[in-house]
């Protein structure tokens, strides 16, 4: 199987790796780069646990080939906080009690971050719509939805 | 009962909604789950060859071609696993030997350099099967002429409260005989007879099962797993492999959702056996989502027949219920669900005449295992609809009916136990008030109908009578506290609650307490399993005992140093203070190095190490023919849910507009997290009510993926959900606390079913209440065209 | 194999630099190579073992693939690699093709739509394709580059059966073109899934209507049905009823019945045939009401 040398930006730093054709971005992150915050829940693009930001847009990393990432930018949950400062969606989720087992949490956070980036004041419906691809079995979603609202409010000028 | 002393700022760690201990690591991606542990390039990967037949004999098995594939390191089969494994009934081999009993039954395991190679090898293993007639319905499975799944049932080892019927497919039959049921029907003004079914569902933790095992050359085994039950896994695997428990070390980091699927032993033993063939190398077995749906535990199916009767005042007179559990190919865990369904088989009602039969039936379906609620969501699902029907039949409002008949403190329950004080009546009142019971609101559109429904529930921790907990409380040089325990953090927040209890019992601020993780059977204190909503209560008792033990050691040390009585001393906010001399000393100055001896040279005290353990000693056996005994269970958590729904007459789609949950938790150690359990459980209940079923055809699951096994998404959660805490203290619980983890999904299906009846007058035989079933039922009833 | 593979099987990822090069490679490796866009279905089928291609040919970067262009005289052209989120958010689409945005918005989840494309949805040839109905009622055409050069193929005659199209070895669909919709049109896509959002369609009904003085009723309607036949379906008899007789509630009902009669649904894990047929009726009636109301 063909190998491909790729260069991409991962959480702000340049990465240069050689990847086989059939390796997914999810496998590259977890198994090669040991960046295990991104979770594997179904390998079929259905559960959203592997959601990362790819050129700023959320995507199921199990449905992206690593080789397709050449020249692109990837942000994972590990790249959300900056200078030990949590992203407002991280703080809000923590404070709203929207975390239980935590396995869906990384994907939820990246979907939420992307939503607020494109729509800083989403409605309840828009939040639910944006999170439809992130399955959570513990929380019942309501605290996650509240957290996104809180993060949106926190970003508004006082 | 423990009392909580407020700290100087008025805060008490118990009863305060402190933030979760694990939340920070979980929002940064730092929290480690089993599949995240790095093993380096020596790690081998395993895949499993599974039976394509629901029931067959293995006539020939040839692994030679597979073994010759480059990259394959070992292949194991049933030949390596002569022993039996099981929690309550040892009825399964780790790998099948002569017979397969469900589609997915493990036949062989391959260890290879990577998953793809292991998968290729699996395809090269040759197996010849002789298909056998199969059982796909539990009622048919009880017939004398039904194909027999376990001819050796009589030889299996079972605990002494399980009663298999050798020569049949019945692996347990629990009975209650109380009063005169046959005579009571004549006194009833109304009698309702119904049959309801509950389909198999799956737990759907977002983290699939994963286990990594390694054997060293002296047969010391290490197992890293996503596990609710590190100690039970150590015990059961050791027994099955004829090893000593101390030869196995189970290390279990955070669990990405369990709901029972990761209790007991399911796929973990496969990894251990495979690793035994490649000693020295770690072997990982990771289930795909598709495998997750039918090769670990699923929730058992149920066929339930109800007969309930009441007098003209709506007082329950008699109940005769029969539960046929579709327990699957192996019932090593399922037999106790049957038992729990039996002793709690009346639901939370005071009924004088009771006959309950709860029958565990082997079928050629996936293996039934524990799932959140342990039989209670299944049996309440139909029972609470039958009670609603009975209320209507006798002309009593369904809430009033429940008010009149619900179990109360001092009542004698059907097993003969005296009910402890319970807040069920209060839960009913609060849920009814919150849903504005008795008032019908207008639909949002002309083609919609609204309805309200309520259901109540009870559930006891179901476990062996002597399931224990233990804990250690250590203090560090800086005065902070490390709690060691063996119960698992599976998302319910137990580490946080244990830290709160330790802080409160010891007298330190909550944020001084840490919980040692991951759980490691070599270093963590023993805990039976993280199941049955038992940790807050059982492990809580152990942790608070350990904290009190540490506190006692500290106070005795200081009393000696200060020449005072321990009774005059206290620990508040991490300081030892004397109410008599008004002296004070910070914990950090004494918990490791002790204190100077006031009478001269030397020191007193030393490192403080508190220990605590708890085991209920008061649960009694029950008569096998009548189910009678003084104390069947430790206690019952009770509660009520009410919903308001809207039905779309054009599609049959049902939307939950408002949901209310009220549960008596005894004492909410962390009220916000209690509410979070009520919310999450209710939405999981909604998910099972509308979407979930393993569609089984001739033993094959037709929908083993998220594409066709749908669960609730963010868009399906109700717009309004209110969680109400009721607190009637439990005498054997820490600070009066009872569990709440499972209970919150028990009454959801029937609450919705009752609302559906209220809205459009239909009853469906079984969940899920898909739009299709609702529409076709409305059409049959003439509600729509 | 009882269940899907844990990972993707082996294949070689090919990234040609020009359309002719890509087309030639695909033609030379007929049966063992396929072009891929977002991979949302491709990867799943490879994991399932349903597809066993040796080569996946990435065509997303080739000429015109990333273009979304609106020409007020000719209509909308969406490059094969333009993802659905971009389609939904595009002002040109929202202004002139709101039906397309509405339909695309019902596909799976936001993060899946980062990968999913309109062309992929068409080439997948699933009877459940949510955006195919909009394409049918908008008279869309596919722009295809093949070994013999470029050609255009109407979407209406593109499907040959479930998963089957008229594409030949070496063909690459480069874009989908939507002619200008009728002036003053209104459209609606009603999708019935199991969940509130995000599911596949148990039934999907696309309706488009516009005023036409030449029609006896003064209106013309186009309808398309998803998940109720082996291929996406235009119930032409229902459409005829709506243009031939004065519009009324009873007329809508009759058209809805005709649509239901045109459907040939099956029983599967998502729903039964009887229910699907009833839902074609009810959703068609609702979609027609909505469209009629908007037309005024």
Descriptive report:
The complex is a heterotrimer of chains A (158), B (785) and C (296). Chain A has 158 residues and is of the alpha+beta class. Helices cover 34% and strands 17% of the residues of chain A. In chain A, a hairpin with a 2-residue loop joins strand 3 (51-54) and strand 4. In chain A, helix 2 packs across helix 5 (142-155). The mean pLDDT of chain A is 97. In chain B, strands 3-5-1-12-9-10-11-22 form an 8-stranded mixed β-sheet. Chain B has a 5-stranded mixed β-sheet with strand order 7-16-15-14-8. Chain B is α+β, with helices and mostly antiparallel strands and 785 residues long. The N and C termini of chain B lie far apart (61 Å). Chain B folds into 3 domains: 23-31 and 467-614, Aldehyde Oxidoreductase, domain 4; 34-132 and 209-286, Aldehyde Oxidoreductase, domain 3, CATH 3.90.1170; 301-463 and 621-780, Aldehyde Oxidoreductase, domain 4 (2-Layer Sandwich). Chain C is of the alpha+beta class and 296 residues long. Helices cover 33% and strands 23% of the residues of chain C. In chain C, the strands form 4 sheets. In chain C, strands 4-5-10-6-7 form a 5-stranded antiparallel β-sheet. A 3-stranded parallel β-sheet of chain C has the order 1-3-2, covered by helices on one side. The longest helix of chain C has 23 residues, at 273-295. Chain C is globular, with a radius of gyration of 19 Å. The chains are: A alpha+beta (158), B alpha+beta (785), C alpha+beta (296). Chains A and B meet through helix 2, helix 3, helix 4 and helix 5 of A and helix 1 and helix 15 of B.
Strand and helix layout:
The complex is a heterotrimer of chains A (158), B (785) and C (296).
Chain A: E1 3-10, E2 13-20, H1 25-32, E3 51-54, E4 57-60, E5 73-75, H2 88-96, H3 105-118, H4 124-131, H5 142-155
Parallel strand pairs in A: 1-5
Antiparallel strand pairs in A: 1-2, 3-4, 3-5
Helix pairs in contact in A: 2-5
Chain B: H1 23-28, E1 44-50, E2 56-62, H2 64-67, E3 72-77, E4 99-100, E5 106-112, H3 115-124, E6 126-131, H4 138-141, E7 170-178, H5 181-184, E8 190-198, E9 210-215, E10 221-225, H6 230-240, E11 248-252, H7 268-276, E12 283-286, H8 289-292, E13 298-299, E14 301-310, E15 316-328, H9 334-343, E16 353-362, E17 368-369, H10 376-394, H11 398-405, H12 424-434, E18 448-459, E19 469-475, E20 481-485, H13 494-506, E21 513-515, E22 519-520, H14 535-562, E23 569-572, E24 575-578, E25 584-586, E26 595-596, E27 603-604, E28 609-614, E29 637-648, E30 654-664, H15 671-690, E31 696-697, E32 700-701, E33 720-726, H16 748-760, H17 771-780
Parallel strand pairs in B: 1-12, 10-11, 13-17, 15-16, 20-21, 30-33
Antiparallel strand pairs in B: 1-5, 2-4, 2-6, 3-5, 7-16, 8-14, 9-10, 9-12, 11-22, 14-15, 18-29, 19-20, 19-28, 23-24, 24-25, 26-27, 29-30, 31-32
Helix pairs in contact in B: 10-16, 13-14, 15-16
Chain C: E1 12-14, H1 19-28, E2 33-36, H2 42-48, E3 55-58, E4 68-71, E5 75-79, H3 84-89, H4 91-96, H5 98-105, H6 110-113, H7 118-123, H8 132-137, E6 141-146, E7 149-154, E8 159-161, E9 164-165, E10 172-178, E11 186-192, E12 203-211, E13 219-226, H9 236-244, H10 249-262, H11 273-295
Helix pairs in contact in C: 9-10, 10-11
């Amino acid at each position: 199987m063909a190998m491909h040398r790729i260069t991409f930006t991962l959480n702000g730093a340049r990465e240069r790796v050689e990847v086989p054709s059939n390796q997914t971005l999810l496998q590259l992150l977890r198994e090669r780069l040991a960046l295990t915050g991104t979770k594997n829940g179904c390998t079929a693009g259905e559960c959203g646990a592997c959601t990362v930001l790819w050129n700023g847009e959320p995507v199921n990393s199990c449905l992206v080939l690593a080789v397709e990432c050449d020249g692109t930018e990837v942000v994972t949950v590990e790249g959300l906080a900056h200078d030990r400062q949590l992203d407002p969606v991280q703080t809000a989720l923590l404070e709203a009690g929207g975390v239980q087992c935590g396995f869906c949490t990384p994907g939820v956070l990246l979907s939420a971050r992307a939503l607020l980036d494109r729509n800083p004041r989403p409605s309840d419906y828009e939040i639910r719509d944006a999170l439809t691809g992130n399955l959570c079995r513990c929380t019942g979603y309501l605290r996650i939805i509240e957290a996104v609202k809180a993060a949106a409010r926190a970003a508004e000028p006082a | 009962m423990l009392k909580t002393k407020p700290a100087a700022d008025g805060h008490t760690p118990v009863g305060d909604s402190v933030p979760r201990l694990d939340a920070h690591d979980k929002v940064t991606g730092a929290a480690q789950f089993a599949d995240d542990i790095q093993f380096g390039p020596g790690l081998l990967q395993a895949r499993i060859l599974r039976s394509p037949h629901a029931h067959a004999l293995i006539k020939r098995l040839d692994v030679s071609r597979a073994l010759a594939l480059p990259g394959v390191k070992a292949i194991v089969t049933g030949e390596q696993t002569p022993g039996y494994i099981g929690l309550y009934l040892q009825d399964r081999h780790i790998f099948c030997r002569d017979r397969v009993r469900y589609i997915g039954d493990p036949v062989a395991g391959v260890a290879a350099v990577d998953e793809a190679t292991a998968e290729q090898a699996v395809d090269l293993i040759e197996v010849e099967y002789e298909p056998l007639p199969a059982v796909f319905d539990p009622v048919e499975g009880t017939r004398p002429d039904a194909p027999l799944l376990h001819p050796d049932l009589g030889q299996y080892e079972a605990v002494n409260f399980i009663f298999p019927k050798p020569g049949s497919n019945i692996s347990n039959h629990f009975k209650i005989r109380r009063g005169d049921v046959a005579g009571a029907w004549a006194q009833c003004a109304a009698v309702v007879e119904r049959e309801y079914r509950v389909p198999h569902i799956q737990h759907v933790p977002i983290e699939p099962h994963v286990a990594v095992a390694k054997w060293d050359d002296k047969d010391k085994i290490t197992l890293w797993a996503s596990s609710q039950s590190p100690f039970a896994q150590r015990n059961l695997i050791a027994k099955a492999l004829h090893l000593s428990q101390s030869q196995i070390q189970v290390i279990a980091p955070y669990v990405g959702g369990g709901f029972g699927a990761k209790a007991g032993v399911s796929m973990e033993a496969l990894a251990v056996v495979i690793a035994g063939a490649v000693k020295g190398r770690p072997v990982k077995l990771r289930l795909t989502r598709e495998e997750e749906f039918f090769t670990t535990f699923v929730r058992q199916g149920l066929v339930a027949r109800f007969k309930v009767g009441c007098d003209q005042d709506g007082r329950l007179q008699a109940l005769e219920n029969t539960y046929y559990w579709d327990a699957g190919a192996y019932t090593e865990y399922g037999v106790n669900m049957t038992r729990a369904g039996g002793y709690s088989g009346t639901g939370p009602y005071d009924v004088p005449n009771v006959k309950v039969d709860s029958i565990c039936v082997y079928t050629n379906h996936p293996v039934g295992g524990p799932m959140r609620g342990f039989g209670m969501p299944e049996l309440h699902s139909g029972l609470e609809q039958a009670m609603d029907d009975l209320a209507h039949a006798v002309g009593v409002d369904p809430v009033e009916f429940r008010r009149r008949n619900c179990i109360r403190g001092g009542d004698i329950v059907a097993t003969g136990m005296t009910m402890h004080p319970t807040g069920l009546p209060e839960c009913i009142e609060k849920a009814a008030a919150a849903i504005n019971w008795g008032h019908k609101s207008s639909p949002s559109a002309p083609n919609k109908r609204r309805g309200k429904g309520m259901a109540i529930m009870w559930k006891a921790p179901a476990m062996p009578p002597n399931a224990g907990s233990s804990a250690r409380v250590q203090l560090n040089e800086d005065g902070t506290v490390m709690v060691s325990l063996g119960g698992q953090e599976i998302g319910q927040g137990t580490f946080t609650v244990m830290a709160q209890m330790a802080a409160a019992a010891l007298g330190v601020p909550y944020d001084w307490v840490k919980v040692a993780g991951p759980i490691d059977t070599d270093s963590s204190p023993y805990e039976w399993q993280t199941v049955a909503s038992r940790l807050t209560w059982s492990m809580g008792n152990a942790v608070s005992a350990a904290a009190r033990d540490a506190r006692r050691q500290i106070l005795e040390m200081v009393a000696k140093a200060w020449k005072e009585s321990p009774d005059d001393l206290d620990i508040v906010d991490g300081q030892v203070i004397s109410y008599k001399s008004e002296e004070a000393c910070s914990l950090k100055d004494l918990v490791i190095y002790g204190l100077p001896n006031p009478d001269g040279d030397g020191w007193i005290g030393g490192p403080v190490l508190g220990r605590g353990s708890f085991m209920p000693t008061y649960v009694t056996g029950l008569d096998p023919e009548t189910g009678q005994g003084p104390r069947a269970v430790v206690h019952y958590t009770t509660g009520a849910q009410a919903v308001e729904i809207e039905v779309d007459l054009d599609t049959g789609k049902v939307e939950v507009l408002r949901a209310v949950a009220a549960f008596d938790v005894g004492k909410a150690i962390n009220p916000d997290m209690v509410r979070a359990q009520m919310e999450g459980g209710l939405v999981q209940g909604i998910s099972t009510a509308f979407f979930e079923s393993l569609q089984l055809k001739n033993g094959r699951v037709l929908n083993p993926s998220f594409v066709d096994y749908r669960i609730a998404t963010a868009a399906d959660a109700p717009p309004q959900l209110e969680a109400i805490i009721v607190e009637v203290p439990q005498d054997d619980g820490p600070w009066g606390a009872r569990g709440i983890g499972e209970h919150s999904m028990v009454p959801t299906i029937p609450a919705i079913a009752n609302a559906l009846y209220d809205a459009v007058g239909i009853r469906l035989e079984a969940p899920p209440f898909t739009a299709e079933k609702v529409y076709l039922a409305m059409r049959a009833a003439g509600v729509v065209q | 194999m009882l269940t899907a593979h844990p990972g993707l099987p082996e294949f070689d990822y090919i990234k040609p630099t020009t359309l002719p090069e890509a087309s030639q490679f695909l033609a030379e490796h007929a049966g063992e190579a396929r072009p891929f866009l977002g991979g949302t279905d491709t990867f799943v089928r490879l994991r399932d073992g349903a597809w066993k291609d040796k080569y996946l040919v990435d065509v997303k970067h080739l000429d015109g693939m990333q273009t979304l262009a609106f020409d007020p005289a000719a209509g909308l052209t969406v490059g094969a690699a333009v993802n659905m989120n971009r389609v939904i958010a595009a002002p040109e689409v929202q202004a002139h093709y709101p039906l397309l945005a509405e339909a695309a918005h019902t596909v799976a989840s936001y993060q899946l739509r980062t990968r999913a494309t309109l062309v992929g949805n068409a080439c997948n040839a699933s009877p459940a394709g949510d955006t195919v109905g909009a394409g049918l009622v908008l008279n869309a055409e596919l722009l295809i580059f093949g070994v013999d050069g470029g050609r255009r193929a109407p979407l209406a005659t593109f499907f040959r059966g479930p998963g089957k199209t008229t594409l030949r070895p070496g063909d690459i669909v480069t874009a989908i073109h939507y002619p200008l919709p009728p002036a003053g049109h209104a459209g609606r896509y009603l999708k019935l899934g199991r969940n509130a959002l995000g599911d596949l369609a148990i039934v999907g009904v696309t309706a488009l209507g516009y005023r036409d003085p030449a029609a006896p009723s003064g209106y013309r309607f186009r309808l398309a049905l998803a998940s109720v036949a082996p291929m996406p379906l235009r119930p032409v008899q229902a459409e005829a009823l709506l243009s031939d007789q004065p519009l009324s509630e009873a007329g809508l009902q009759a058209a809805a019945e005709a649509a239901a009669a045109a459907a040939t649904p099956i029983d599967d894990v998502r729903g039964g045939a009887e229910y699907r047929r009833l839902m074609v009726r009810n959703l068609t009636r609702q979609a027609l009401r909505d469209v009629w109301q908007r037309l005024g």
